[in-house]
From TrEMBL:
One of its GO terms (biological process) is tRNA pseudouridine synthesis. The lineage of its organism: Bacteria, Bacillati, Actinomycetota, Actinomycetes, Mycobacteriales. InterPro entries: PsdUridine_synth_cat_dom_sf, PsdUridine_synth_N, PUA-like_sf, PUA_sf, tRNA_psdUridine_synth_fam2_C, tRNA_psdUridine_synth_TruB, TruB_C. The gene is truB. It comes from Corynebacterium otitidis ATCC 51513. It catalyses: uridine(55) in tRNA = pseudouridine(55) in tRNA. Responsible for synthesis of pseudouridine from uracil-55 in the psi GC loop of transfer RNAs. One of its GO terms (molecular function) is RNA binding. This is tRNA pseudouridine synthase B. Keywords: Isomerase, tRNA processing.
């Protein structure tokens, strides 16, 4: 018997450069022949790397996806500021070449110490952040002024290497691990300002999002060219990758699938409830005298064969 949720899960895409996250979603809708596709966390058009995408029931799981930490490799160009804090924008200021030439890796690394740990960061103005229902970059391109408030971010790892001098600039490679909501473009901008020469991002590659890394990632072209594109993780694999598991019986799995709760077991935090047959039925959390679901991956209404692929 075919699994009605056999086409549901996550695709970890290795996003190519100069495509928006929405572009990737649009292409995967065609590749997987479904409108039910969404992404978890925007990746800038100039960036490449890990973009987590939900397909079918996997789109519902995206809201529960734990991705507290993201990692990147980046190249920061010191000596020139741009309107977008990356190479997409026009240059708006250039430093004195003598000041830039005086920089070495040790000086840059010393300035970077200010951005290691937890601090308040003003996001890049040209961003997808919403102001009154419209994205900041849309308002700026319409000539509106945008004032984004600083927000608390954490950079747990910031390693700099290979400072390469150029024509009035210095390019520095960086490896960054940070909290969700951190802008690497803003880091490049702020590091350049801290050194008094300005800066912007010239390359960015996301290497991991939470539990998902480049080893999981599939090139977008491969997914588009495949006759039957594959998921990176089934809905069952997605839940058990992101959460510790809790073993339940098949009968208890059927109860969770119908929205019922189980007797408490003294467990802490959210767990993926998994039956002996390997079904990850739901995410559950204990509250008071109940072990109740916070997300039902396999609701009984979707598991009954009805219509195309068993879905109503």
């Amino acid at each position: 018997m075919l699994d009605p949720l056999g086409t549901s899960g996550l695709v970890v895409v290795d996003k190519p450069k100069w495509l928006t996250s929405h572009d990737v979603v649009a292409r995967l809708r065609k590749a997987f022949h479904t409108r039910s596709v969404g992404h978890a966390g925007t990746l800038d058009p100039m960036a490449t790397g890990v973009l987590v995408v939900g397909v079918e029931r996997g789109t519902k799981f995206l809201a529960h996806l734990v991705a507290a930490t993201k990692s990147y490799t980046a190249t920061i160009r010191l000596g020139v500021s741009t309107e977008t804090d990356d190479t997409e924008g026009e240059p708006i200021a250039a430093a004195d070449p003598a000041d830039v030439a005086a920089l070495d890796l040790a000086a840059v690394d010393a300035a970077a110490e200010e951005f290691r740990g937890t601090f308040d960061q003003v996001p890049a103005k040209y961003s997808a952040l919403k102001i009154g229902g419209r994205s900041a970059h849309e308002l700026l391109r319409r000539g509106r002024e945008v004032d984004l408030p600083a927000r608390r971010v954490t950079i747990s790892r910031l390693e700099l290497s290979d400072a390469r001098p150029g024509d009035g600039v210095v390019d520095v490679d960086a490896e960054v691990s940070c909290s969700t909501g951190t802008y690497i473009r803003a880091l490049a901008r702020d590091l350049g300002n801290r050194l008094g020469v300005g800066g912007h991002l010239t390359a960015l590659r996301r290497t991991s999002v939470g539990a998902f890394g480049l080893d999981d990632a599939i090139p977008l072209a491969e997914l588009e060219e495949a006759e039957r594109p594959r998921l990176s993780l089934s809905i069952d694999e997605a839940l058990t990758r992101c959460y510790p598991t809790l073993e339940i019986t098949e009968e208890e799995g059927d109860m969770l699938a119908t929205g019922k709760w189980l007797e408490p077991r003294g467990v802490k935090g959210t767990r993926a409830a998994v039956t002996p047959s390997g079904r990850a039925v739901a995410l559950v959390k204990e509250s008071g005298k109940r072990l109740a679901s916070t997300f039902v991956a396999r609701p009984v209404t979707l598991m009954k064969p009805s219509g195309k692929n068993g879905r109503k």
